[in-house]
Structures
1.
Amino acid sequence: MSDIPAGTLDLLILKTLHTLGPRHGYGIARRLEQMADGVMRLSQGSIYPALIRLEQRGWISARWGLSETNRKVKFYSLTRTGARRLDVERALWAQSAALVARVLESES
Amino acid sequence: MSDIPAGTLDLLILKTLHTLGPRHGYGIARRLEQMADGVMRLSQGSIYPALIRLEQRGWISARWGLSETNRKVKFYSLTRTGARRLDVERALWAQSAALVARVLESES
DNA sequence: CGTGTATATGTCGAACATCGACACGTAAGC
DNA sequence: GCTTACGTGTCGATGTTCGACATATACACG
């Protein structure tokens, strides 16, 4: 069982919020683990600091509310700045993935 | 201009040695930058520590020699352990890339 | 002969992300 | 009352990468 790909957590969180709309940290984590088909873990030690970081940068915003399970939770939403940042992160990832793919496929 | 994708330097070095055979640090760095089409940089502050790390783990081995430009250089080769490790890193990367792709393409 | 440039290896401290373990609290079901 | 799943958060440790610096040599050119 591996960790989540280094440096992609911001992208994954941003995209998850973009896709699903407002969601709380625990829900984002569960969603990502489910997408990973159980082969990756996502520790709380990663997700919460990441959310705080993203909020400080203005890419997501938080508001307290009640979950479907009737608990006090923090709902995070993608901000307009965050949506733009998602595009940037996406492009950076595409570049990275393309480079790695090229190297892995190279034969000389 | 972005950096090389976090956490993939080992994989990229291992694969480069696998593809090209023995090569020195500077040459590996130049090769990778060339593969990146100039859109990524690779600082010496990354490549040399990485090579030392890989050698300590037994994945590559070093031997002094002369370059085509007639300079004293350290040639690194992939060890048998390193070749096995390359497969592992490859598989881990494939998992990561698949996860990110799945999240990025998800629509709900 | 002197100077500059590309080649080449390395070190150092700082910055940063992630992990694993821990602490705390609550709703619901039995 | 107890347990379990849910939920947020902190903390120290670890590891990677960066940017700046130090050092040295082969070769071309004036």
2.
Amino acid sequence: MDKKKEAIHIVIDPTSGIPYYRQIILQIEMAIADGRLTVGRQLPTVRSLAVDLQVNPNTVVRAYNELEIRGLVNTQHGTGTFISDKRVEMSDVDREQILAQLVRGFVSQSASYGFTVHDIIKYLTDYREEGAL
Amino acid sequence: MDKKKEAIHIVIDPTSGIPYYRQIILQIEMAIADGRLTVGRQLPTVRSLAVDLQVNPNTVVRAYNELEIRGLVNTQHGTGTFISDKRVEMSDVDREQILAQLVRGFVSQSASYGFTVHDIIKYLTDYREEGAL
Amino acid sequence: MDKKKEAIHIVIDPTSGIPYYRQIILQIEMAIADGRLTVGRQLPTVRSLAVDLQVNPNTVVRAYNELEIRGLVNTQHGTGTFISDKRVEMSDVDREQILAQLVRGFVSQSASYGFTVHDIIKYLTDYREEGAL
Amino acid sequence: MDKKKEAIHIVIDPTSGIPYYRQIILQIEMAIADGRLTVGRQLPTVRSLAVDLQVNPNTVVRAYNELEIRGLVNTQHGTGTFISDKRVEMSDVDREQILAQLVRGFVSQSASYGFTVHDIIKYLTDYREEGAL
DNA sequence: GTGGTCTAGACCACA
DNA sequence: GTGGTCTAGACCACT
């Protein structure tokens, strides 16, 4: 049993073509934007996240650095990295663009297996009705 | 309304950061997935598409090449490039299992960005109604 | 006897009529097939192999690329290219069926050239004993 | 029920990378060399072979042309194409080279599915013992 | 340092 | 006419 409930669960998709550091940034941004990560919350340490995601620590460093440059997080040397009070400006359009990119990648991947958009919608609808999520 | 019926209309966005050849692949895969490109249809010739998109012919070659390796298209030397059958030996049960696996992975990935199954279905449905892209 | 143990030694034959990039692919595949290259091993870097073979780096890139698309190797950007696992989800029964299908096709193909199963086995056995190529 | 028993059965492998016309030439050469095709025998007509192999008639024409240039066959306008009396010089080395090329392609293909040379030899040996050919 | 992308242009092979 | 291969060289991205 873990001591604390994780506020954010980052998943790296090696097949997406999106650079790892970019995937990390995007997911943290989105978590801030929709309230899963609130001001003052501590992010995982570079090392623990690197182990968790099985990526090079430098990759995490790069992601955190970019977030810091944008002012979304503060790094306190020797203590950790924390969500700053700067609000993330994420319009519905921005959100939709990210979703669009994800969906496009998925649809293409599915096409490689011979599935159509129709197949996907059908399966997803059934999937939802069965109460999974 | 265009005068002639286009089998596929590819657009390159130089600002997206996605490599040109990958944009071509994605759009062809999507066209296959939503039925705009059907089995046996001929793709534009390498040279004509290169002129059309204003990219180097080699860039188109590279895209077609990857599609060929993946088995999505067949190349007939000296003749052209065609959408292949690809609905290989696969039982419906196998198909469903593969689709299930793909969908589960995608839903989990989307969830880490804060998107729900509902968001995905909505986007896909809109996407279909708008006639792609 | 060479001083250092080579994981793989690739030789390009410019007179064979087989494209360079394909010769590279074939030899790497064969090295995987007979166990000289095992999972996780790093391939030579693009540049070093290009120098070694006296071909253009792009030619090596192309070979590695196709191997990557087929799932035989994994590329880690900025790090190198490695033999991937690839023993995907496949039961022994499935494996045997696929092998059977491959072998049947090959035997039939060989027969049309006048070669018998005996010829093939003999060649393969000799091939193994000579330590490949 | 066919009227005559075919002396030669040509098989085109679209995945081998060997040009179709080349595959036809090789297989006819081998058939002449090992006595399956004897002097005076008629080859299939261009059209019938093209239909049979599902290739462009021009491809067959090209193969027959090259065989004619080498003096292996005679074309009698309006009558057909016949094996000439020129012996095919095909040394064991030549034969082995052709076999080598075929086997290399097959081993590589098998590697893509994760099979080793050992797997192949084992399966082939069993295959032969079961009396199949 | 690694690999990735793209261009320009030459030359070859197949139908 | 189609696609295929290769080179040379520039510039970018990731570790």
